[in-house]
């Protein structure tokens, strides 16, 4: 593909994402869940026919993927690269609209999913603590690895580190957090950390939200295992966490 074709491709994708309803659709899929066009129409606050037209355009540009199961049709983000691009645009968008951060719901600011890994204040605190303790080491600006002590810590929590290293994706990398403007842990390790916290019931996820709620057990265990002390005031999401049904993140 030559430079001119690249320019055209970027322009088409930018135009597709720039439409507000499509932006809402794409951002709602950042939690890794697939949704029907009816659900996405409600999220985007448009009619079913308008949502279908938007989804057709997003599918044409390889931004979303369609799954057909019987009479049901589900849409998800095409892949993790689309999620990473959206998160990066959210960071840039805050520079354009400085008040965006203040309008972000507290529950999303504290802890949420970023495609298949954890984001928000909690994720950034865990990232910083792992760096500070020497468990997570920077190979370069875009690559992390675990130290021996870091590997022992995570294997003690049930994460098969060696299996992660054999996956056909980046093992661990910094992912810039749009609400904190600092990195959290992405890659296969980030996904494994999220699944571990859900499996151990340290966090719960709402049925129809990207927000993660820290449990009392999670606060205690994160403090004991990682040395990250969280007060009740830190996690505003716990005030409403028990009012929602929860389900595990699926990929």
TrEMBL record:
Domain of life (superkingdom): Bacteria
CDD domains documented for this protein: HTH_ARSR
InterPro entries: ArsR-like_HTH, HTH_ArsR_DNA-bd_dom, HTH_Metal-responsive_Reg, WH-like_DNA-bd_sf, WH_DNA-bd_sf
Regions that span the bilayer: none
Domain (HTH arsR-type): residue spans on this chain: 3-97
NCBIfam families: HTH_metalloreg
Name recorded for this polypeptide: Helix-turn-helix transcriptional regulator
């Amino acid at each position: 593909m030559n430079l001119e074709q690249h320019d055209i491709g970027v322009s088409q994708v930018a135009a597709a994402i720039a439409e507000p309803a499509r932006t809402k659709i794409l951002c709602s899929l950042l939690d890794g869940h697939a949704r029907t066009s009816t659900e996405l129409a409600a999220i985007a606050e448009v009619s079913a026919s308008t949502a279908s037209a938007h989804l057709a355009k997003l599918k044409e540009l390889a931004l979303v993927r369609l799954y057909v199961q019987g009479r049901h049709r589900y849409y998800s983000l095409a892949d993790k690269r689309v999620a990473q691009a959206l998160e990066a645009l959210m960071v840039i968008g805050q520079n354009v609209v400085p008040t965006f951060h203040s309008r972000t719901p507290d529950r999303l600011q504290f802890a949420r999913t970023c495609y298949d890994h954890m984001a928000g204040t909690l994720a950034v605190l865990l990232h910083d603590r792992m760096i500070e303790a020497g468990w997570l080491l920077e190979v370069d600006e875009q690559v992390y690895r675990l130290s021996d002590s870091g590997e022992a810590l995570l294997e003690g929590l049930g994460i098969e580190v060696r299996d992660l290293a054999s996956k056909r994706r980046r093992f661990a990398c910094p992912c810039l957090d749009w609400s904190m403007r600092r990195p959290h842990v992405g890659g296969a390790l980030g996904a494994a950390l999220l699944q571990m916290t859900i499996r151990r019931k340290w966090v719960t996820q709402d049925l129809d939200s990207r927000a993660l709620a820290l449990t009392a057990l999670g606060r205690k265990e994160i403090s004991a295992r990682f040395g990250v002390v969280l007060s009740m005031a830190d996690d505003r999401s716990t005030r409403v966490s028990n009012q929602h049904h929860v389900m595990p993140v699926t990929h």
